[in-house]
Amino acid sequence: MIISSLKSMILRLRGVRESKKQDTSKKYNMLMVFVLRLFFSNRVRASLYQNIILVMSNSSLSIYGTLVALKEKYQYYRSFNNKVLATILQDWITKIEYDGMTFDEAIKPYIPENEHMMIKANFDNPINALDYASSLTQKFALLAKKIAIGMIMPTISILVLIGVIVGCSLKVIPMLLESLPKENLSGNIADFIALNDYITGHTWHIILLAIVLFIMLPIIVKRWTFNIRYHLFDKLWGFAEYKRIQATSVLISLASLLSSGKSFNMAFMLIENNCSHYLKQYISKIRLMMSQDGVSAGRALASVNLFNNNTSLLLDIYTDTGAIEQGLLALSERVLETEIEAIVTKMKMIGFIILSLSMSYIGFFYFSVATLSDSMK
Hints:
This protein has 377 residues and is an all-alpha fold. The chain has helices spanning 2-25, 30-39, 42-57, 63-76, 80-98, 103-107, 113-121, 126-150, 152-179, 187-201, 203-223, 227-231, 239-259, 264-274, 277-292, 297-303, 309-320, 324-376. The protein folds into two domains: 2-112, no CATH class; 151-377, no CATH class. It is globular. It starts with a helix and ends with a helix.
């Protein structure tokens, strides 16, 4: 009787523990992880990785113990970033403690695939793994920062153009029509009013088109892999820039993996398993060339039309001289800088074109008003 009572009590306690485990492990739903990831930027991740490295390098704490210690301190030294980090670390700790996940499995939903690849590939040595991931993160943070700076000019130019059109529609044209009936207007001023009416009359169509493009273009650019994409669309703006960024990510990831002691075959396999749909076509082709044709890694890289002519040329030279691994390390740094400059230059050019449209619109208005004034003299 007593033994059966004890058994039932133990079973109830186990049930409570299991339910607690399930409740805790399900605490963060997909929406919460998505929101937290928005604030878990490249800069914040790189800082966290460095803190984990510093604690583990100078103490006897394990990776789990380090996460617990950092979470407690982030909660104590309160700031917005620290609150975000404490919340994320709590999820990692829960997954490791209650779900039996490894560290790289716990953090996977929060970080980009190529970053996760670096950590997973080198996690026999957590400090080195996080060091490589931190270096990778900092490089892509620099790329993202420069692209954001490049977007300033186009954004300002678009706002100027919208402001001019709205100002003319709400203030200037109504004032003109008050002083002079619309049916008496002709020539340039009539053309300008017709143009403005056309633009304002299709405002919702333009807004809807902009929203659709804003949502659909990133999806198309990342996932569309038909042959026409590689032969034609990759030469167009937007697609070409995405190709530049992806090509740069291959060089950076490959250089990091080789630095960690991985072979070319292992490095390409890891990249293929963690890269975008777009890149898989190129990496698969590289691996096929290396396995079937006996082509070296450097020659395969140079031959798949992923990189620009200058990069492919240098890859060929490094292969010929037997210095492909050292060359990739140097080339990854150089290509990152040159690609950033090229993307920023293109952004500035687009901003200049949009600003020119704004100035043309204003110029057309003043020319129309001047013509009207001359005709009324």
